[in-house]
Amino acid sequence: MPGKIETAEGSDVPERRGVYLLTHPRSASNMFQIMMAKQPGYQNSGYKLFDAGFMSVGQMHRGRLSEWPEDDRTAAFAAFQKGWENLQNEVADAQKNGKQAFIKEHALFLLAADKFFAFEFPNDDVKAPVLQERDGPKSAHTNPTSLPDRFLLSMQPIFQIRHPALMFPSMVRAQASIMSDTSTRHPRVYSTLTLRHSRALFDWYLKNASSERKPRVIDADDIMSHPSAVRQLCTQTGLDPDAVQYEWDEVHEEDPLMARFKSTINASKGIIKGMDARSLDIEAEKTKWTAEWGEEEAENLAKYVKDAMSDYNYLLTHRTRGE
User: Fold this and answer.
1) Is the model's pLDDT at 62 over the cut of 60?
2) Which of 71, 79, 192, 226 is 20 to 30 Å apart from 27, CA to CA?
């Protein structure tokens, strides 16, 4: 039954508590979440760690965490701790209501400030709080995020991906509407133009997840154009393929930041055609970027797209396909 996959009796695998939709900015994940909003047996919820993650992105220009004032470091970790508490609250509330949680988060935002900044400053030495579940046994931390292993292993992971040549320029445009400097040379921009976090977490799940919670991958193209792939994904993850929505009402978003990032999906009433990567020509896209941002920015963006392709293609080989 959808929402009722149970852990085998006597197993040391933590009880399944929901589905974790692990995405990347501008991967059309808001659309997929709406499509799954009426799954029976699930409590659908959005970002819990977004605020802390976006805070990290916005402060990359400040340099090493170890050189920050102590109060500022404390505030950064406190923001992630607050998100972690909210995440636990959501899962607990779903359980109280006799349901499992369906939660979406960008994979790179599962990293607290110390881990997020480490990719830019790998030799920085910062002592960060070790997070544990408040009502559970102590957990190991072998995964590449800041969340405890036991929590991650209690969730069915679905990784949503999209071609970098579509995601990355869209992210630059979205940031441009809320930030003053969105040059691809700026760390708060290029820190998001990578799929390494998704791949690292996927590989960890592949090695450590139980067989009944194998990590799944869905590509945005398949979501938009191949309903059979979505149905297969539902079958693989305990979701109801007959409860997937393909039409919905327009949404008004009160939060201005969320309104910007959700502007396209909030104005839609269903899947928007023509936004997939079929017949995508990188050189043709690069010409468009040059017209929009200039030659240097277009070259930089093309480099980040090229660098991300190995991770994208790797994840693509693991994607769920339609019958």
Assistant:
1) yes
2) 79
Contacts of 15 (CB under 8 A, 6+ apart): 6, 7, 154
Q: How far, in Å, CA of 140 to CA of 91, rounded?
A: 20
* Distance between CA atoms of residues 296 and 311, nearest Å: 24
Give the C-alpha separation, 38 to 25, whole Å. Answer: 23
**In the predicted model, what is the mean pLDDT of the chain?**
90
For the CA atoms of 190, 194, 196, 199, the dihedral, rounded to the nearest 10 degrees, stands at 160
Secondary element (H or E) of residue 216: strand 216-219
Number of domains in the chain: 1
Q: What are phi and psi of 296, to 5 degrees?
A: -65, -45
Q: What is the pLDDT of residue 319?
A: 98
pLDDT at 4 over 60: no
Amino acid in position 129: P
The predicted-structure confidence for 152-162, as pLDDT tens digits, reads as follows: 999 999 999 99
Angle at 81 between CA 205 and CA 145, to 5 degrees: 20
Give domain status of residue 4, yes or no. no
Q: Would you state the structure tokens that stand for residue 108, as one six-digit string?
A: 């790179």
Residue span of the structural domain in which 65 resides: 18-317
